[in-house]
Amino acid sequence: MGSQYQIFAQTSIGMILMMLLYMLFRSLLYKDKAYFFYAIYLFCFLLFFVISKLGWSETDLAGMLRVNYLRIAFQIGAYVFYFYFIILFLNLKELAPKVYRVFKLAIPVVILYVSWVLANFFIKTPLNIIFTTFLIIRLFLIGVSVFAIVKTAKLNNPLANFFVYGNSVFLFFMLVALYFSIFPAYSSNLSVDEVLFYFVPLTYAYIAVILESLFFALGLSYKAHSTEIEKRKLQETFTSQLEKEVKDRTEEIIELKEKQFEYETLQAVTIERNRIARDMHDDVSSGLSAINLLANYIQTAPLSKNIETEVKHIAQSSSDINQRIREIIWSVNSESDNLLGLVSFMRRYAAEFGDIHHLDCIVHATQPLPDWHLSGDVRRNLFLCVKESLNNAAKYAQTERIDILVETNANELKIRIKDNGQGFDYEKAIQKGGNGLKNIHNRMQQLVGTATFFTEGQAEVVLDLKINQ
Fold this sequence. Notes:
By secondary structure, the chain is α+β, with helices and mostly antiparallel strands. It has helices spanning 3-30, 33-53, 61-90, 92-95, 97-119, 127-153, 158-182, 192-199, 201-300, 306-332, 339-357, 376-396, 426-431, 435-446; strands at residues 360-365, 401-409, 412-419, 450-454, 460-466. It contains 14 helices and five strands. Strands 1-2-3-5-4 form a five-stranded mixed sheet.
């Protein structure tokens, strides 16, 4: 054969090989069967072209027949993978059900025909029958292609248009190849290379496969691009929906938190009101009732030396009531919701307590005091623990001095109440009732703190509490 035709044939085979490798690589990269089937389709045609280029001696008739069987098998068998490729490429089952059914029908027909051709390696079938059936199967495949082109062209689908254009070009050049294979042509005015190029059917088969593969390469790129755009849109839609759901959920949570805060605030206010009412009833109301009884007794009783004692009782009760009222007001005053407010109130109380019981009662605090927020409940319970400790020391310790030390370290508050008295037996005090000690312990437990009692020798009560700011 002429050198120019050899260059054309080798270039065409090289282009088909590159396209085959490209499709194979894409199939591995994207794990897409469509690319894989098209790679096998190109591989079949590549083998068809390579075998067609092999030279055979005219005397080796058996070898030539086997080569022709292989050429027919690869050329026709390629359509099986082509049909599978188109089915996946266009999603024919949903896009064009009629074309899908025709392709599914054509696939077993092609497989049976190729199997029969390859069986001729072992059986003897007249050549005229083989080539007649070859012509029939090619016309059948042309009919299937024309039907598919017409049906998909009506869809007006951008992706389907690549199939229409590619298959139309392929079909046109294959018909030219078929024409020259049935009606050989020759012109004495042309050179050998020109004759080989213009009148050899294989030339148009090369052109058909190359142009078709280019159209489908464009189609696959368009499909990948469309898929990427669709994924991006889906991602944007998903992100938008997710943001909306997050926004709605956040608004719901905020609304629930606000309702919860309102409920908890209402509950706290209710609890505080009930506590104030209870304290007023237990301390103030009962104290006032006692004063009223004593006053009525003095008013109705004859003058005696007991009048002075009763008057002292009234004075003491009124002083206690005044102190309790001050404690209640202080515990609910938000301006005192800090450590400084607690220490200041303890100093005033300790000074009055020392005057009444004729002993030194002094509050010592580390300076400067941290700006810790202490709720009314925390301040009240800590103060009542200190107050109970002072009462116990004044009654039982026979002490002349009580020191209250307020210490802070990191987020820890420690209050020590120390006396210089004789101490007491903690176990006996508990067995005899020890309500004051139990109250101190219970109040510190309520604050998630601890109360420790040192009773040997000079007694000491240590109140320890973690402050969360």
